[in-house]
C-alpha cells in the first residue's frame, strides 16, 4: 500500500480532536522543512505553522498538500510523525492493518516445526505401503528362496492389503517362481 493511500486512510484519525497538539505539528512541519530532500519550502512551512489558523485546518491542509506532492513526501511525513509522536504513530489505523497477519500467508516459524499435520492414520498408511513394497522387493529378489514364506504372509494379509492387490502380488510371485 502506498504512503499516499495510507495517509488518506489515516487522515480522519490524525485530524480528530486531541490527537496532535500544536507543538508536535510544529515539530513535524519544521522537520519536513529541514530534511534532505526538502519536503516543504519555507513559505509552505510558514503557512502550515501559522498560529492564526486553527490546528485542525492547518493539519488537514498539510495532509492534503503532502498527498498532492506524492508518495515520497507522505513517507517523510510518516517518518517525522514516528520521530515526534511515536505512540500516535503506532496507533494509526494503517499500522494496525499492516500488523495483522494475512490468514492466507504461511507462517514460516510454525511451518518449520510442523512436519505433518495429517495424523497417525496417514503415518500408518504410508508405513504400511513402504513395508509392503519392501517385502515385495525382498520376495522378488532371485537370490532369496523365501517365496513359500512370502506366499503365506501375503495369503494371511487381506486386512493390510486389499484382495485385488493380494491376488496380483500372488500371481506375480508365481510367475517369478516359474522363471
Automatic annotation (TrEMBL):
Residues 38-96 form the CARD domain. GO terms for cellular component: endoplasmic reticulum membrane; mitochondrial membrane. The keyword Mitochondrion applies. CDD domains: CARD_BinCARD_like. InterPro entries: CARD, CARD19, CARD_BinCARD, DEATH-like_dom_sf. Gene3D superfamilies: Death Domain, Fas. The chain crosses the membrane at residues 120-138. It holds the Pfam family CARD. The keyword Repeat does not apply. SUPFAM superfamilies: DEATH domain (SSF47986). It is a single-pass membrane protein. It is found in: Endoplasmic reticulum membrane; Mitochondrion membrane. Keywords: Disulfide bond, Endoplasmic reticulum, Membrane, Mitochondrion, Transmembrane, Transmembrane helix. GO terms for biological process: regulation of apoptotic process. Its main location: endoplasmic reticulum. Associates with BCL10 by CARD-CARD interaction. This is Caspase recruitment domain-containing protein 19. The gene is Card19.
